[in-house]
Every structure is written in structure tokens, then in C-alpha cells.
Design a protein that fits this description.
This protein has 349 residues and is an alpha/beta fold. The chain has 13 helices and eight strands. The protein is 47% helix and 15% strand. The two termini are 38 Å apart.
Length: 349
């Protein structure tokens, strides 16, 4: 195995109780040729001091202290100074098994992949975690936008290894309050699909093994029940549909994903009395309809379901329950959250 440098970007904000576990798991990796970039995003606790403490002990660690600007800006600051041939992202309350980067790098070099993704495990305080297996299988992803591809490939930047050339001028979109990971991944995948040009080069591979430990805090931003945040990423997806330089299949995938998000987001809105949310959903639907009329990007069946839900939501709900009875359990949980039985807090970015 070669010794390519991996730059590991860790955005940090108010995670003093978890930060040492995270950093220890990175600097203790069996693959040691790392550049660890800790970005202190104006943390009000002792996180910044902990970063400096680690930098004094390990020459591989670089620390950025910056005013609070959000997770996208923090990651971008790390990307701006990264010098590695590969880039990895680790959230500051998560941690890694010993062999994490060794395995991802081995797969990247054996396949020539520009992106290597793996599954992640949601972990709580009292959960035990398994060791990662060095002998792992992987799947070649020809179309990362396909509905048959595991959602983790599209949704998150952690649990991935990116080649630096696949992300060299791509940055996270500032201002997004939800979906910044999906937005970043879509931009990278669009580039890789555009560069493939029928050469058969394996651009993306997926390891269906849980090799990243995602710490599930009740205060995590992704757990907050705020459907308005999800509207941001739909607008972002629709903006890419209108970029005519993008390949047809790429634009088709963007519109398809936007439609799916509209369906799920508006369904969640059933439990919200937010009038602004209702109006936003109407605007999103109108935009999608206009794009479909102009470009004819998605099939008739998918388009029929979107129109059905917009015009006759009760009928669409019946179809969904017949197709997936677990939806009833999901609805019950959402109603419980709305009544405050599962109180959510948000002290993250």
C-alpha cells in the first residue's frame, strides 16, 4: 500500500466532552500518514484550547481558530489549507475504528476510485462498537443518484474518502441550515459523472460495512424537528436542474431527488401549522412542474405521484401506507414529537 497523505478536516464547535475521543481515534489510526486539520469555529467552551494542546503534541495536527460561521464555513477553511492527495471529514463528536483510513485507502488504491464510501453506525453513550474488518467487500457505483444506491452514499461527507482532485475547487454552500453534506456530494458526483466519458473508470465505490461511529446526541442539529430547514436543500437541488451545462442524466437525477424531498418534506409538514412552510411547498411544486415541462427530465409514473400528492394528499397517503405499512409507525412518532413527548434541543451550529 502506498503512503499517500490524507487530510482529515474536523469542524469543531462546543464539543468539549467528546473532542478528545474524536481526535485520539484519528491520530491513533493504523494508517499514519495524516494531516489533521482541526477547525475551531469560535467555540465558547474549551474546545479551542484542547485543539492547541493536541497540536503541541503531534506535528501532524494543524489548528484553525476562526469566528463562528457555521459548519460549512468551518469545513471550507479546512479544505483551503489541505495538502493531502485524499480528503476525509470527521465530525467532532464522532470517532473512528483503528483501521478506518487504512481500509478506505486500500480500496481507493486497488480500484482507482475517486470516492470511497462506507456505512456508519449510530452510537449512543452505552453502546459497544465492533472492530472493522480489513477484509471487506465493496460495490462499484455507476450512478450515485440511482434510487438503488444506499442513501449514505448521497447524504453525508463523513464516512467517505475523497481524492483531492475530485474536490479541488468544490466547497460547501454557505448559508444552508440543512443538507450541506448532500449538496457537496451532489456537486462532486456531477463532476465525476461528467468526467467519466465512457472510459469505464471506477469513480465511486461503496463498502457496505459499518466503519464510522456516528455519535447520536439528542442535541444534534440533524435531529431537530424543523421542516423549514429541509426546504433549503430542495431549492439547491432545483437550482442545479437549471444549469444546462450539466449532463442530462445529472439534471434528471437532481429533479428526481428534489421531487422525492418535496414529497417527504411536505408530508412532515402535515404536523406543522407553519403557514410559511405550506407556501414554500407550493412554490417548490410549481418550480418542479415548470422544470418538468421545460426539460422532460423524469418519467410519467414519478411525475404522476408528485401531482397526486399535491392535489389529493389523502389518496397519496393511502398509496404510501399500502406500499409501506411502517409509515403508520413513523406518523405516530412524529405526532409524539410534535406534542413534546420527545423534547428536542439544538445547541449546535
Amino acid at each position: 500500500m502506498g503512503d499517500s497523505l490524507i487530510s482529515v478536516v474536523v469542524p469543531i464547535y462546543n464539543v468539549e466532552p467528546y473532542l478528545r475521543r474524536c481526535v485520539d481515534s484519528i491520530i491513533g489510526q493504523s494508517y499514519s500518514n495524516l494531516e489533521v486539520i482541526l477547525v475551531d469555529d469560535g467555540s465558547p467552551d474549551q474546545s479551542g484550547l484542547i485543539c492547541d494542546e493536541y497540536a503541541e503534541k503531534d506535528a501532524r495536527i494543524k489548528v484553525i481558530h476562526k469566528p463562528n460561521g457555521g459548519i460549512s464555513a468551518a469545513r471550507n477553511s479546512g479544505l483551503d489549507i489541505a495538502t493531502g492527495e485524499y480528503i476525509g471529514f470527521v465530525d467532532s463528536d464522532d470517532w473512528l475504528p483503528l483501521e478506518y483510513f487504512e481500509i478506505l485507502m486500500k480500496v481507493a488504491q486497488n480500484t482507482g476510485a475517486e470516492v470511497v464510501a462506507c456505512k456508519y453506525m449510530r452510537v449512543k453513550d452505552d453502546d459497544s462498537v465492533p472492530r472493522a474488518s480489513r477484509e471487506c467487500k465493496y460495490d462499484v457505483i455507476d450512478d450515485p443518484f440511482s434510487r438503488n444506491v444506499d442513501g449514505v452514499v448521497k447524504r453525508v461527507v463523513h464516512s467517505k474518502l475523497f481524492s483531492s482532485k475530485s474536490v479541488y475547487d468544490i466547497r460547501f454552500t454557505a448559508g444552508l441550515t440543512w443538507g450541506e453534506d448532500t449538496d457537496f456530494c451532489y456537486k462532486v458526483f456531477s463532476r465525476l459523472l461528467g468526467e467519466k466519458n465512457g472510459t469505464g473508470h471506477c469513480a465511486i465505490v461503496f463498502i457496505p460495512q459499518e466503519m464510522y461511529y456516528y455519535y447520536q446526541r439528542s442535541s444534534s442539529i440533524t435531529h431537530a424537528l424543523d421542516t423549514m430547514k429541509k426546504v433549503d436543500i430542495i431549492y439547491q437541488l432545483l437550482s442545479y436542474v437549471n444549469i444546462e451545462e450539466n449532463a442530462f442524466d445529472t439534471r434528471k437525477s437532481y429533479l428526481s431527488q428534489a421531487c422525492k424531498q418535496i414529497l417527504s418534506t411536505r408530508h412532515e409538514g402535515k404536523f406543522s401549522a407553519n403557514k410559511q412552510f405550506t407556501e414554500e411547498c407550493k412554490n417548490l411544486f410549481k418550480q418542479s412542474r415548470n422544470f418538468q415541462k421545460k426539460y422532460k427530465l423524469i418519467g410519467k409514473a414519478e411525475w404522476f405521484l408528485l401531482n397526486l400528492f399535491y392535489l389529493q394528499p389523502w389518496l397519496y397517503r393511502l398509496y404510501r401506507i399500502i406500499d409501506d405499512p411502517t409509515l403508520l409507525v413513523w406518523e405516530k412518532n412524529q405526532k409524539s414529537l410534535k406534542r413534546g413527548k420527545c423534547e428536542q434541543q439544538n445547541d449546535d451550529w
